[in-house]
Design a protein that fits this description.
Length: 387
């Protein structure tokens, strides 16, 4: 299952909205109740929960993870690494009973998408990190990712990897360039376009196509894209709504253009150089999947050290070369560029890993959907998508 959730049924979204509620919900944890007894000084262990295929592995032994093993050798901290997060809502359902009841989750570090991270921050379910003890994060975190609306100063979250939701298309089969979101609605693409099904993944690009500043979008902006999308569904211009299965449609030529994630397209381009990815002229959404320390984690200091380890440019470069997502450490680009391996060095020039200046100017982090908005918005969007 993809790291970017395939489907987001209303039931799961509504459950989160109910927990978040209006005002101060029953599930909210006050700041003074979030820290547990930190055993890091005497217990040199750490439990790190992540998504599948989201860390570098050894070519000859997939059970070995070079960057993680290097951390253990350097610090003496043994890391239990589990690939247990397959979907944001599913993982929310797994650990929310413990968090809302002020109990330990058994995990010291987790990685979740920023739209879900916003929910955790609002509920007071994650701890603030001590940035004074994370010099690499303080120095090297990409300025574009430093100030999401949901977490001022990134006090509770640090991007693990980042990415762009833009437009992918088959340049050869379409026979022309796509430069803007509006180009998707041209007559020659009727029935050959797909959009992402998930509300949180899809709305920003559509709003940007309308010229909206997604850092401060309004309910009216949301309702406008819903009306436009509904009309395009009825006219059969939009072929269907997808999870990551758009990859197959684009590869076979059944679809000529689609809403897509930058990391997926890098893999597609390896097999088919005619596949192009663009950040539209109106802009695209920059997102992240972020590291967070749950309440009552027993090894908070150890977790903070691991986060900072991955912000060493040398380590960040090694990870970026394997996962091929947008690297949240721009300084890693010079490390890759200096590689003696031509294929590795070429990654430094890939704008889908290190966006160039022109592309960066068109990227923005969307304001997240609030708890008050989520249930109504999800119901409306899912009725259009068919969930």
């Amino acid at each position: 299952m993809s790291r970017r959730s395939l489907l987001r049924a209303l039931g799961a979204g509504a459950a989160g909205a109910t927990l978040a509620g209006c005002g101060v919900p029953a599930a909210f944890v006050e700041p003074g109740d979030r820290a547990g007894r930190d055993s890091s000084a005497t217990d040199h262990t750490l439990h790190f929960a992540n998504w599948p295929l989201y860390i570098d592995t050894d070519d000859d032994n997939e059970s070995k993870r070079p960057t993680l093993d290097a951390f253990s050798r350097r610090t003496g901290i043994s890391v239990t690494y589990t690939e247990e997060i397959n979907d944001n809502d599913e993982f929310f359902g797994k650990i929310s009973p413990a968090l809302m009841n002020h109990q330990e989750t058994g995990r010291d570090l987790i990685v979740i998408s920023d739209w879900m991270a916003a929910r955790f921050v609002r509920l007071g379910w994650v701890q603030e990190m001590d940035r004074a003890k994370q010099p690499n994060v303080a120095k090297y975190l990409d300025p574009l990712l430093r100030a999401p609306a949901f977490d001022e100063g990134r006090r509770h979250s640090v991007p693990w990897q980042s990415g762009i939701t833009g437009i992918a298309y088959n340049r050869k089969k379409l026979g022309r360039e796509i430069r803007s979101t509006g180009d998707l609605w041209a007559d020659d693409l009727r029935g050959r376009v797909t959009l992402l099904s998930g509300l949180d993944e899809s709305f920003a690009l559509l709003m940007q196509g309308n010229g909206v500043d997604i850092t401060r979008w309004t309910a009216d902006d949301f309702h406008e894209i819903c009306e436009q999308t509904q009309k395009r569904v009825r006219s059969k211009h939009i072929r269907r709504f997808t999870g990551n299965d758009y990859i197959k449609d684009l590869a076979t030529g059944d679809v000529l253009a689609c809403q897509a994630y930058s990391g997926d397209v890098i893999q597609l381009q390896a097999d088919n150089p005619d596949i192009a990815f663009i950040v539209p002229e109106e802009g695209a959404e920059l997102w992240a999947e972020s590291l967070m320390i749950p309440n009552l984690a027993r090894h908070k200091r150890n977790a903070e050290r691991l986060v900072d380890h991955y912000y060493d440019p040398e380590v960040a470069a090694e990870l970026a070369a394997w996962v091929n997502y947008v690297c949240p450490v721009p300084a890693a680009r010079d490390v890759l560029a200096s590689s003696k391996d031509e294929e590795t060095a070429a990654l430094a020039e890939d704008p889908l890993i290190f966006p160039d200046d022109a592309m960066r100017e068109r990227l923005a982090i969307a304001r997240d959907i609030t708890s008050e908005e989520r249930m109504g918005f999800a119901k409306k969007w899912n009725s259009i998508v068919g969930l």
